[in-house]
Each structure stands twice: as C-alpha cells, then as structure tokens.
Amino acid sequence: MQNALFVGVSAQTALARELDVIANNMANVSTTGFKGRSARFQEYLMPVASADSFQRQDRRVSYVIDQGTPLDLSQGPVEPDGNALHVAVRGDAFLTVQTPQGLRFTRNGAFELNPQGNLVTSDGYAVQGDGGAITIGQQETGLSIAPDGTISTNLGVRGRIRLVTFADPQALQNEGGNLFSAQAAPQPAGPESRLEPGALERSNVKPVIEMTRLMDVNRTYSMVSSIVSRLDDLRGTAIRRLADVA
C-alpha cells in the first residue's frame, strides 16, 4: 500500500511539472519567435527492496521520472509586416544579442533603433553583427536587410546580422525575455538558415493542442489524486482496525 502511495505521488509530481510547461506555452502564444516546450517522462523500476525468494515474488515498483522539457524547434508561422527593421529567422539558426549577463540568443527579430542609432531588441539589447554592435547614423536613409543578414543604407553596407547554430540546441536554457543561454560555443549558421526581411516569426505554440493537453493533464491529475486519497483512507482504516484488535 505504501508503494502505491509513492507511485501516485511521483505521478502527481510529473503531472504538475507538465502543467507548468503547458501554462508557460499558453502564456507565450503571442510572443514573437517563442519556441514551446513539452514534458518528457520515463518509467523507473525500483531496483531495491525486493524479495525474490518468496513463493510469490515481489512485483517491481514502477515510478515516474521527469526526463526534462525538450525544446520544440519547429518553424513558427512567418507573417510579413512591412517593417524594414523586422526579420524572421528561417531554419534552425538564432539571432545573437548582447545583454548585461553576456551574449544571449533569440528568435525574436522585432528590432528597432535606439536614440544612439544602435540596432536593438524591444528590451534594448544590442543586436550583434559579425563585427559587434550595428549602428546606423541618423542621416542615413534607405535601410534594408538582405536574407543573409547584410544591412545596407544609402551609405553602403553597415554590417551583417550574426546568425548562429548549436550542435545540441536542446542544451539551450531559457532565461526569460524570450532569450536563451548556452554553455557550448555557437557556430556560424549555414546557407540553409536565412532571414526574411519585413516579417516576424510568430510563436510555434498551437493553442488547440495545448488546451487539449491541459484538459488531459487535469483529468489525469484528478484521477490520480482520487486514487491516492482512497489509498490513504484505506491505510487509516487498517490502522484503526489493528488498534481495535490489540
């Protein structure tokens, strides 16, 4: 009976974790360039506390283990908006920005120019080019961004937006603000990755699927909670009856 309670609690913990993942996905349905996550679990067979010498051998106890929240790197819908400073990333590459904590990576290409003429994100982080920050003079006109990231004005080429990829993108860590950090060094993006100027990549979260997952998790959590509650009541009844016999 005790094992059954532990198994139920492990299932509730896993379901609560999945609920957090779904809630975060739903909260970012409208976030530009957002990449959703899913929950991954694995069966864990208890390797100890068994006695196989009995006529009826102990059954193995199966728990639930949280195996992480893999990143969904599928392409989100790309919507043109006509803004010359906006870019959508096509492929598996990431944009590079400079933050107070160091270099970070994002798929959010909603750029703008700050008062100093630096190309920045909506949070004010400097977009990185091959040679560092990209600056556009106030007198420059005709700004355009090419699919390879080259930025040009009436004065010529002003820089090229840095696109990078990772050998293991699943190792990227969310840091809030639609940014990722990485322990491994990024690599220059290949020709299969490019920018689509005058457009933005929307979130790749599918609301209908997430709502279906949410209902399924809630239903399963309620079922497991009911089982755990009944087992707890049964244990209490057994203890009281044993006390009466004594």
Which descriptors apply to this entry?
246 residues; alpha+beta; three-stranded antiparallel β-sheet; 19 strands
What does this structure look like?
The structure is a single chain. This protein is an alpha+beta fold and 246 residues long. The protein has 2 domains: 2-71 and 205-245, no CATH class; 78-201, no CATH class. It is 26% helix and 26% strand. It has 2 helices and 19 strands. It has helices at residues 2-27, 207-245, and strands spanning 41-45, 62-66, 78-80, 87-90, 94-99, 102-106, 112-113, 119-120, 126-129, 132-133, 144-145, 150-153, 156-160, 163-165, 173-174, 180-181, 187-188, 194-197, 199-201. Strands 5, 6, 9, 10, 14 and 17 form a 6-stranded antiparallel sheet that branches. A 3-stranded antiparallel sheet has the order 11-12-13, with no helix packed on it. α1 packs antiparallel against α2 (207-245). The chain is elongated. The mean pLDDT is 86.
